[in-house]
Amino acid sequence: MTTLDGLGFPEALRWRDGALWFSDMFRSRVMRWVPGQPAETVLDLERGGPTMPGGLGWMPDGSLLVVDCIERQVLRVHDGQVSTHADLSSVMTHSANDMHVDADGTAWVGGYGFDPEADEPEASPLVRVHPDGSFSTTSASFVFPNGCERDESGALLVAETFADRVSTLASDGALAPRARLADGSGPDGLSIAADGSVYVSLAFAGTLVRLPPIDAGPNAAADLVHTPEPIATGPGAGPLGVYDCAVHPDGTRIAVAMASADEALAERVDTGRVVVLDL
Asked: In the sheet where 123-129 sits, what is the strand order?
């Protein structure tokens, strides 16, 4: 197991060219890490980055797309210059969150849809951002859409954090259940393996689980993969939530993001870490 410590709240894990990219949401930075080497900051406030970066992805020309959660925008970073790719504030009333970007540059962005601290859960659509920056919303709605990734069939799998389920959005717009998770477990990030297994980070349960391939049936039980040990001492002591995961392209490893289960504590203290586990 390889570990990167000293982070605030790592999210949006993406493997690219042998390195793991991710957003450290509570420290206003996007980072790149080759396991076994020091991590580097590739975008921060001083370089025009957002206060709270979220989902990441890339355009066909290699430009980096970054969700600006607070301003509800998708930013584009090209040759070190940051610009607004799409301003989604007209269709999102609450914070933006994670994002999947297709090979052609089409981005699928989820948002909170409600205030988790004050409101009852409410469904909201994904926003489809076209490569030219224009956008539209899906007819299907999700309860706090979070991690999302496209499977071999072309369907988009979406973790619904406050509905404790993973849903499938087909290319024709049809919505279907992929898996139901334990009540209150909080599916957050997800990553699809080559065999069709889906790894899901459970934010509130503080575990990483594996859903078997779809041919095992919608009621197949999830397998427990990893539960991090709590932080034993110090200002960040306490249990960890598991917030995202990313299977390495070679299929032999998985990166897992975690931080204090108390997000207010994670804002103040560097409890965040990313671990790379063998599969």
From this structure: 96-101, 107-111, 123-129, 135-143
